[in-house]
Design goal:
The protein is α/β, with parallel strands linked by helices and about 500 residues long. The protein has 16 helices and ten strands. It has two domains: about 220 residues, no CATH class; about 230 residues, Alpha-Beta Complex (Spore Coat Polysaccharide Biosynthesis Protein SpsA, Chain A), CATH 3.90.550. The chain has a seven-stranded mixed sheet, sandwiched between helices. Strands 8-10-9 form a three-stranded antiparallel sheet. The C terminus is likely disordered.
């Protein structure tokens, strides 16, 4: 049993090291292809008479706190008025519908080509709304912004030049963070997203690998959407799904890290977990749908390998949770090693699993003009948060393996009214149990002289406890608020969803 335990423990750690080494490889690609990335920031400049017709799609569902900001920002985009259409694709069932209609009428009175589009049903959720709008759009290019984004005036002129090349199907821009400094949680989220945009997307684009439209802050060639089979809603990540189908159909994507579109990060742990759950489950569903097609496509070996890492990243979460569970019995069963053995075996594994993370996020910080050491300071909390999310996202991976599609759970936006939309969740009993288990691992690592294990056990303990405490406080606070609301004549709108967490208007 002891041998089996040791083999299983080190097998899990080695698999996690593979993910870590892959991150380091992405950093190397960014450095190797710096000139390609620089050239991409200089697309052909088009005269006004050469500019293509663009439709900007704004999918909405219960976004009362941000809808006015979104429409007003979109209306300021600098582009010839006879070549720009704005579609407000509204599926809302609360006061958002009235607010959006009123704002559309106000902007139309100012001469802006903006239309309010409402479907007879909400089939397909966001993907269904985008498809419905596409069938009525005027533009040959389709830009998309979620409700929590703030389009900048120069967005279209900065990117449309890329479409002078016939095979460019999509241009993705970088996400900014309006509320980056709001809390520790938002600062860590910002670092996570910066890693995705400033390392993963840059590396994949520059090296000629496939990457994805991020669902917002990007612009599509309409024909590329159609040639790829259109928007489909059999996964929860319709953006990733369409991206792969379009690139397999022969279209090339461009990434522009220098074009920034500000957006709002979730400020509550419950909302953040719900967002991550949807992304994880949808990515697994997309992998199930397309992985055989990717493996059979006429791609290079490097493209196939990178696509596997791209489509299967969330399997690291079950491994991380399993590692935290195995740590305590492994500490008790294995004798403490001497210093020489630690440096030969333990240290390389530690560096493979975490050292590459440091390199990854330092590059993300450097790429946006920040100081690499600021990423290092936040790295322990980022690792702990990843561990704390592992049980929830393990459930998402399981759900993605078990079923396709599902309910699309929107992420509540704070906007101008804090607390208007809240995220309900189950109380985190599993995280509480794992925090207690990891606390025992901390004690065991000290008592058995496994010094390399102590900081990792501490991070597991902190991560589980942080997530559990945050979610518990938010949910208990919501229950108190809900009783207050129920006692008043104010309307309460709720959604009954398949996911463990549901969006609720409180």
């Amino acid at each position: 049993m002891e041998i089996l335990l040791v083999v299983l423990y080190f097998s899990v750690l080695l698999l996690l090291c593979c993910y870590g080494v892959h991150r380091a490889h992405l950093v190397i690609l960014c450095l190797r292809h710096r000139r390609t990335l620089e050239r991409a920031t200089r697309p052909p400049q088009l005269a006004d008479s050469e500019l293509p017709h663009v439709t900007v799609q704004l999918p909405l569902y219960n976004e009362a706190t941000v809808v006015a900001r979104l429409l007003e920002a979109t209306a300021t985009i600098d582009y010839p008025s006879d070549r720009l259409e704005i579609q407000v694709l509204d599926d809302s069932n609360d006061e958002t519908a009235a607010l959006a209609r009123a704002k559309v009428e106000e902007l139309r009175a100012k001469g802006i080509d903006i239309v309010y589009v409402r479907r007879p049903d909400r089939v397909g959720y966001k993907a269904g709304a985008l498809d419905y709008g596409l069938s009525r759009a005027k533009g040959t290019l389709i830009a998309i912004f979620d409700a929590d984004f703030v389009p900048q005036p120069d967005f279209l002129r900065s990117v449309v030049g890329h479409f002078a090349e016939e095979k460019v199907g999509m241009v993705q821009t970088r996400w900014g963070h309006i509320n980056r400094e709001h809390s520790l949680l938002t600062r860590i989220q910002a670092l996570m997203l910066d890693g995705h945009h400033l390392v993963e997307n840059r590396a994949r684009f520059a090296a000629g690998f496939m990457f994805n439209f991020s669902g917002t802050g990007g612009i599509w060639r309409r024909q590329a959407i159609l040639d790829a089979g259109g928007w489909q809603h059999d996964t929860l990540t319709e953006d990733l799904d369409l991206s792969y189908r379009a690139q397999l159909a022969g279209y090339r994507f461009v990434y522009r890290p220098d074009v920034l579109t500000p957006a709002e990060l979730p400020e509550d742990m419950s909302a953040f977990r719900a967002q991550q759950y949807r992304w994880a489950k949808g990515t697994v569903q997309t992998a199930r749908k397309l992985i055989r097609r990717v493996l059979r496509a006429p791609l290079t070996r490097g493209q196939r390998v990178e696509a596997m890492f791209h489509l299967l990243p969330h399997f690291a979460y079950p491994l991380m949770m399993l590692l935290s569970v195995l740590l305590l019995p492994a500490l008790i069963a294995m004798p403490a090693t001497d210093v020489k053995t630690m440096f030969i075996i333990d240290l390389p594994l530690v560096l493979g699993a975490t050292g590459s993370l440091a390199t990854f996020y330092m590059e993300a910080e450097r790429a946006q003009g920040g100081k690499a050491r600021s990423a290092l300071r936040r790295l322990p909390v980022l690792i702990a948060l990843g561990a704390g999310l592992a049980p929830h996202l393990t459930r998402a991976v399981w759900e993605g393996m078990r079923s396709m599609s599902g309910e699309f759970v929107r992420t509540p936006k704070k906007g101008i009214v804090a607390g208007r939309y809240r995220q309900t969740a189950r109380l985190p009993w599993l995280e509480i149990g794992l925090a207690t288990w990891s606390a025992a691992s901390v004690v065991a690592s000290i008592q058995t002289n496994h010094w390399f294990a102590t900081p990792f056990a501490t991070l597991f303990m902190f991560g589980y406890a942080y997530v559990a405490a945050s979610v518990t406080a938010e949910q208990l606070g919501m229950r108190v608020d809900s009783r207050d609301v129920a006692a008043s004549p104010a309307e309460v709108v709720s959604e009954s969803l398949e996911q463990p967490e549901v969006a609720r208007a409180a």
